[in-house]
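Example protein
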Amino acid sequence: MKNRFSKEEVVRLYVNLVRTRALDKVMTEGLVGGRVGGHWTSQFGQEAVGVGSCTFLRKDDYILYGHRGHGITTAIPKGLPPEALIGEHYGRMIGGCCGVGFFREFDPDLGIVGLSGTLGGNFVVAAGLGIGAKMRGKGQVVICTEGDGTYGRGTFHECALMSANWKLPIIWGIENNQYMIYSHVSELYPKDNLADLAFGYGIPGIVVDGQDVVAVAEAYATAVERARAGEGPTVIESKTYRIEPHVFGMSDLKGWTPRPQEEIDAWRKRDPIKLLQERLLKEKVLSAADIERIEREAKDEMEKAERIAGESLPPEPEILDRSLYAE
């Protein structure tokens, strides 16, 4: 394979794509079945961005992510047990705590430090983590991934300026899925590439095909090497597409009219799993039997995780108190 990764590493990317989609399916079915409290924002078709950015990170690197998918494509490749994420959404106790999903992901041993309650809050946390990582001098990096709409928030620009001036080890990831609820990205940004935002801060701005998980992983690997070497931050825009509605149950619109079906169909043809699958089969890295086995194992893993979450107990009131308040 003509890239920086070994065949085994590319297969690892493929496996994580399949695993995260299998988990997305479990969560979607959990919502329809009334087991998921609240809502679910699917990342179907967008898996390559999170998987490519996080699969090869060190355990002590930090990740922050946006609300879409609630972290499944980033936290699962980083090592988060899927039953922990499912359990939080089911309101169940997993491993002595009240889950680690949408509102309370926190696993410092894995570099998972939580999800901001409002879009754009992660930028500030990432800047703080970047300062800490630089002060420790251990080569840690911070990956902060948000959607295209969130990069219009002032918090990004403040933190991008700080990260550039202080050469903080942060990769600002833009998961550009073309839509902010009902608004197309072209309506809200004057240029084609959001990565051009980096120019004003004197840092690299890279655009990558967000459907090609290997290309995403290569872009992030280069940025991570740069950050570890003390050369500062990078902005990476991964161009992808939101196949599903913004939230299940909402109208799927572009402005005031339905999203064009031909647009959705065109992006479906560039499914990141199918693209890599075809490549692996063509280059005889995997066989059809391998593909079937990987899909079966991912399905079994996520169904087992769902059973563990579903059979776990609801949290005791004092656990909820400790989750919300400090002494």
Remarks:
- Strands lie at 62-64, 142-147, 170-176, 179-180, 183-184, 205-209, 234-239, 253-254, 257-258.
